[in-house]
Amino acid sequence: MSGTITGALSADRYSFWYGEMQALFDVTLDIAPRAITALIGPSGCGKSTFLRSINRMHDLTPGVRTAGTLRLDGDDVLDRGVDVVQLRQRIGMVFQRWNPFPKSIYDNVAYGPRLNRKPSGDQLDDIVEQALRRAALWDEVKDRLRTSALGLSGGQQQRLCIARALANEPEVLLLDEPCSALDPIATQKVEELLWELKKDLTVLIVTHNLQQAARLSDQTAFFYLGRLVEHGATDQLFTAPREERTESYITGRFG
Amino acid sequence: MYRFITTAFALSIPLLLVLLGIEVAVAAWPALSAFKLSFLTSSRWDAVEGVFGAAPAIYGTLVSSALALVIATPLAIGVAIFLSEFAPPWLRQPVAFLVDLLAAIPSVVYGLWGIFVLVPALREYVMPFLSDRLHLGNTPFFSGPAYGPSMLAAGLILAIMVLPYISSVTREVLMAVPRSQREAALALGATRWEMIWGAVLPYARSGIVGGILLGLGRALGETMAVTMVIGNRHEISSSLFAPGYTMASLIANEFSEATNDMHLSALMAVGAVLLLVTVIVNVIARLLVWRVERQGKA
Fold this sequence. Notes:
The structure holds two protein chains of two kinds. Helices cover 36% and strands 25% of the residues of chain A. Chain A is of the alpha/beta class.
């Protein structure tokens, strides 16, 4: 690793199989650090599979196989010798359906730090406050940290999940359709928050919502049938796509 | 018409329960009104003199059941965690089946096994080991002569009998924990064990408690196997080596010999106390299981 900017991801001829079914074909993609990259494409195109490869969530699924490499700051994420637990601390993840633990707001955010860094009580209070502030949730919950996280609204629960991921101080934040179940106002809050977060981490977001990709991201990658069709600056990809299939998709001819 | 018949069938069961409760209460009334509180607190059970105090039986039921839970709960939860989280698929089904099969063995068979295997083993090896080798003989819990038939034997046999109930309920609730909860923990850098301990078990907690209480309900009411190994003596002793009595064994042992009305009524009163305790336990169990199901949907 060289330099101070971390969180650079790069895939090189990365392929992925669920049993006999090949879900990704030779994906080669460099993801810019400290920027928002959107992964778009129709259902089943492999964008979520790609996202979940980065923090090795597929380890849970039996019968999967990969080829090629996937690097975070030069380290091969897929290497058998990689400490998956450590890797997942460097790469936070937020899921489509918000999934706070049935614990207090405080305990949700403190979950990662308690596992990994074993901070003292005061340190932990600071970490929790910082994470909630970064997730733009602090002012809404500071007086009810000890109450159940399940009492929050959907949008708040999703931002709590973001805060929970941030408490590990990751270099990369993966989001798998984080707004698909949120109303427009809650969605806007999440987007504003991601816009702030990209100042110090790499944000990778899978989305079905093309408008969201267009207004939020710096870079966009279009996946189709398991292949990366086109990757480039969002402005360019949405206004002057190089590939015909990209144009068809973004103009709504399929998908 | 069809609707009327099914409704009648459905209502007949609660009605039967209510009738049963009333019947037991009415039959128990003479003894309860004659001995009042001393029925629950006295250790004197003398059919010849017509004086009845059921304290040793109540004590024995509660202690043997508690002992069973203390032994069975960690084992059952361990089995359930293994089966739901670690076991390879080819092993999961057979082991789950065998554990569930424990619930299908008739209790008289457990009793026989208790008399011919468990009790001699306790007398020859376990009790001497506990009292002499581990020097626990001076504590009130493991003192006195090792007869064999004892509270300890009853607790052990009950532990084996309730284990399948606790473990299969626990297995079900563990498997019902949503994948999203597991993924949340793993994505935050939890190891597999940390995920189970910190996310899966807490999420399933009230369901597991429900399973334990179902096991407790079973242990409280178990009659045959306990009667065969507990020693059947009307005395409260702090030592687990000493023989004891339970409410269920008392009724089973004396019902055919109850010659006068007061004796019969006293046995009915024991039945009423037992019924009350088991109903309370089962209601709590239901409420807890219901709570975890509701959580799962939210």
